[in-house]
Write a structure and sequence with these properties.
eight-stranded antiparallel beta barrel; 9 strands; mainly beta
Length: 216
């Protein structure tokens, strides 16, 4: 993750002389960088869980196909998961596991492929697919002196998600982005994780602030 963040910083510094335009033409290529927070929990989980707030940073490249339609490729690092997950169901009976509460902290590198539609000079809506790769995953058991355990090998490494969002632009360069992503894949991979997490999926709402500038 450190290498990815360093690459983004260097890229931003290297493009610092690029100017944002008041209006873009067909075939223009525009880059955006953003940072903010994601609000996450597990949907379809076998027990209750609370929202986990984590950081997210990203960058994307837009190609103006028409005056109204944009093709966008986006890369991001995001922290997902859930807090205070309790297993109150009596069917969850594993000798080495307590009933919680547990915190799940999952880090992903994601690539999104989206189409954007320009509503007017300030608002754009978009949707597409997000492909994610899990590179760090830990769970903390609050019943056992806050012990943190690596669970990366217990979960599926790859995820495919459905993403939809909206952007508000100011002066065609500063923007606020709100996007919702629901991962199609279930989280657990091994038998123990399947018993505990069952049909759990990642569900995330990310709010970020960003800046856009023209590359070509």
């Amino acid at each position: 993750m450190r290498k990815y963040l360093l690459m983004m910083c260097l890229l931003l510094c290297g493009m610092s002389t690029a100017m944002a335009q008041d209006e873009y033409d067909v075939s223009d290529i525009v880059m955006g960088v953003r940072a903010g927070a994601s609000f996450n929990h597990f949907s379809s989980a076998p027990s209750s869980n609370s929202i986990l707030i984590g950081p997210t940073v990203g960058a994307d490249v837009e190609v103006y196909v028409t005056k109204k339609f944009i093709v966008d490729v986006d890369m991001s690092v995001v922290k997902k998961g859930a807090r205070k997950m309790r297993f109150d169901n009596d069917e969850v009976k594993i000798k080495d596991y307590a009933h919680g509460p547990y915190d799940y902290k999952l880090w992903y590198i994601s690539t999104s492929y989206m189409g954007k539609y320009i509503l007017n000079k300030n608002f754009r809506v978009y949707g597409g697919l997000t492909l994610s790769r899990l590179f760090r995953a830990r769970t903390k058991d609050h019943t056992r002196t806050d012990r943190s355990v690596n669970i990366r090998n217990s979960l599926k490494k790859g995820n495919v998600g459905l993403t939809a969002g909206v952007e508000y632009l100011y002066k065609n360069k500063y923007y606020i982005d709100a996007r919702y992503t629901w991962d199609i894949n279930r989280l657990p991979r091994v038998t123990g994780a399947k018993i505990i997490l069952d049909h759990s999926h990642n569900e995330s709402l990310a709010l970020t602030l960003g800046y856009r500038f023209q590359l070509f």
